[in-house]
Description:
Distance between the termini: 5 Å
Largest sheet: 6 strands, antiparallel
Strand content: 35-45%
Number of helices: 0
Helix content: under 10%
Order of helices and strands: EEEEEEEEEE
Amino acid sequence: MAFAYDRLTEITTIAATVGAVFTNPASQTTYIRHMIVHNGNTTDEQVLIYVVPDNAGAVGTAGTTNETFKPMSDNNTKLATGDTWEWWAPANSPGIILEDENDTIQADAETASKVTIQIYGGKE
């Protein structure tokens, strides 16, 4: 299969409990290269993003061992009202590699449906 750089998710809201925002499909390797998180709430939000490997073929469970990002504003422990946080994979890096079916990017925020995320990358 050829490599294709693409939008991997539409803009989607993050729940107040941990849940998958991207699930790797069967027979695909995905390279997460860019994530955009925006706080549309009227208060600052703590957001956590996890890279979670599959669990014997099923979606795995997020926890402190696979917490990967904590989007925040400069000099703040939370993402401020109206702020946008972006993560880019370093140059000459494949980014975050999801190889197995049900490898996931999971996230949660303090308030449901106020913070959005969109993910871009490559797939083959």
